[in-house]
Structures are given as structure tokens and as C-alpha cells.
Design goal:
alpha+beta, nine-stranded mixed sheet, disordered C terminus
Length: about 180
């Protein structure tokens, strides 16, 4: 009986030892791509789907994100169409978009951006807190447009609720501190 048990243990050991074959795998590289480019039906329009490293990275400062993660000259060279004078590139995320018009030299012309439910800047949060105590922000929208890197027009539209009342306000960031900051 002892001999049978020892024999079975040796056979199991040999079976397990044979089953453990080391398999060599090829090297795999994982890279972060901050955007995906999709051409649209218009030949001079391209949609760029933005992949953020963390939530709110694109919506907090769209121009900064585009400058750090997107090379328009590389896209223009890849398209290689000398008939186009400018390129309308639409950067999209789940919170909103930035539409930017670039010249054939890669210079930013006009831009328009709109984001929903963004984190408000500190000075706007303070303004809301001081002027609307007891109110709750339900949703907000940030709309801006400009030429080049400068924003000519910025507006935050904010929906507030308190009990059964609701109120829509508009805040223009460059007017904070004056008596014309908030309008209904």
C-alpha cells in the first residue's frame, strides 16, 4: 500500500512538472493617445475626439490642452492638400467642444467653445456664494469665442434652484468686481 501511494505521488509530481512550461510573450507597448482624428464629409473639416488623462482636463482649459497635445502642422502635412486655405478642427469631449479654425500655415484664427457642467473658477464660485446664499446650482454652461489665443467673449450661464423657485443667471468673468457681473 505504501509503495502504491509513493508511486502515485511520484507520477503526480512528474505530471505537474511537465505541465509547467514557460511561455515567452512578445513585448507589448501601451501608449496614451490624447486624441483620435476622424475626417468628416467636408474635406476641410476634421473631428478630434479628446481622450483626457483625468476628468475635466480638457474642459478646464481647452486651449492649453490643445497646445500641449495636438500638433496642427503634423495634421496639415498628413492631409497634404495645397488647395485648402484653412482647416476647421473640432475638438470634442463628453462635456463639450472647441471648434478652431487654423490657416494653412498652422496659425489659429477664430475659435468657439462650449462646455456643460464644468467646475467654475474660484472667483465665480465666490461671487455666487456671496450673492445667492441658500441657492443650489443645478447646471451650468460655459461659452467662449475669440481670435487667435485670446478670448474676446466669455459667458457662464448658471441655473440655480431654491425651494420651488429657479433662476437663470449670466456671469461675465471679466466683469467680476463691478456692479454688472450678474444679470437675469
Amino acid at each position: 500500500m505504501k509503495t502504491l501511494i509513493v508511486f502515485l505521488l511520484i507520477m503526480c509530481g512528474m505530471g505537474i512538472g511537465k505541465a509547467q512550461v514557460v511561455t515567452q510573450l512578445k513585448e507589448t507597448k501601451v501608449e496614451y493617445a490624447p486624441y483620435t482624428i476622424i475626417p468628416t464629409a467636408d474635406l476641410d473639416t476634421y473631428k478630434v475626439i479628446v481622450n483626457e488623462r483625468h476628468k475635466g482636463q480638457f474642459s478646464s482649459n481647452a486651449f492649453k490642452f490643445v497646445k500641449e497635445n495636438f500638433d496642427v502642422n503634423q495634421l496639415i502635412q498628413a492631409i497634404n492638400n495645397s488647395d485648402l486655405d484653412n482647416y476647421l478642427i473640432s475638438f470634442r469631449s463628453s462635456k463639450g467642444y472647441l471648434d478652431a479654425n487654423y490657416s494653412k500655415d498652422g496659425k489659429l484664427g477664430y475659435s468657439h467653445q462650449m462646455f456643460k457642467d464644468v467646475l467654475l473658477p474660484l472667483e465665480i464660485r465666490r461671487e455666487l456664494y456671496n450673492n445667492y446664499k441658500g441657492w443650489t446650482m443645478v447646471k451650468n454652461k460655459y461659452v467662449a469665442s475669440g481670435n487667435g489665443d485670446k478670448l474676446n467673449k466669455e459667458i457662464y450661464r448658471i441655473n440655480l434652484k431654491k425651494d420651488d423657485k429657479s433662476q437663470n443667471i449670466k456671469i461675465i468673468p471679466n466683469r467680476i468686481g463691478s456692479d454688472r457681473v450678474v444679470s437675469n
